[in-house]
Design a protein that fits this description.
Blueprint lengths: L2 E6 L3 E7 L5 H7 L2 E11 L9 E6 L5 E4 L10 E9 L2 E9 L16 E11 L2 E14 L3 E6 L11 E4 H7 L7
Parallel strand pairs: 10-11
Antiparallel strand pairs: 1-2, 1-5, 2-3, 3-4, 5-9, 6-7, 6-10, 7-8, 8-9
């Protein structure tokens, strides 16, 4: 079954169709390229030409991938609000973890290059007012520059600057009510 895909990259957005069978995340994790047919290109600078027609995109160049594919989601996931800077894009969404997940004591680490988020709001960092919303997106965890979350997620996003939202609220003095 064809999967409609929008691939957000540093230079622009490639939109096309994946005709290969399988789940999109599996295709991204098992190949070095993503083959798209009937591809159109929307450059971020409004000028630069990009891929069109039948193209193969390097998986490492993909920062955010949005599709109409049905993602696999753990049945009893605990969801954590997260904000990411990924190249020129700002991403807000929810990250699933297993119930009771403690990042400081976790023995398992995420595998693969892409992390799934749900209830995603995606915009350019330079123009947050122009955003799209989608039910889910795959984020290239190695392309993330900054993370703001209620958990310390350094091992999910290696190399990204971490901002822990729980530290600020835990240290803030209580407000007196009169």
């Amino acid at each position: 079954m064809p999967i409609r895909v929008e691939a957000y990259m540093t230079e622009g957005i490639a939109s096309g169709t994946v005709t290969r069978a399988g789940q999109l995340r599996d295709l991204l994790e098992k190949s070095r390229t993503l083959a798209l047919t009937a591809t159109t290109w929307e450059p971020l600078d409004g000028v630069a030409d990009g891929p069109s027609g039948d193209v193969e995109l390097a998986v490492d160049d993909l920062l955010v991938v949005v599709s109409d594919d049905d993602p696999f989601i753990a049945a009893h996931a605990a969801w954590h609000t997260i904000q990411l800077d990924v190249g020129p894009y700002g991403v807000n969404g929810e990250l699933p973890t297993l119930p009771g997940f403690d990042p400081g004591r976790a023995l398992t680490r995420p595998s693969g290059e892409f992390v799934m988020l749900r209830d995603v709001r995606l915009s350019l960092l330079a123009d947050a007012a122009q955003a799209i919303e989608c039910p889910h997106a795959l984020i290239n965890r190695y392309g993330v520059d900054r993370v703001t979350a209620d958990l310390m997620l350094g091992f999910f996003f290696p190399g990204a600057a971490m901002e822990d939202t729980t530290a600020a609220t835990a240290l803030a003095p209580p407000t007196a009510t009169v």
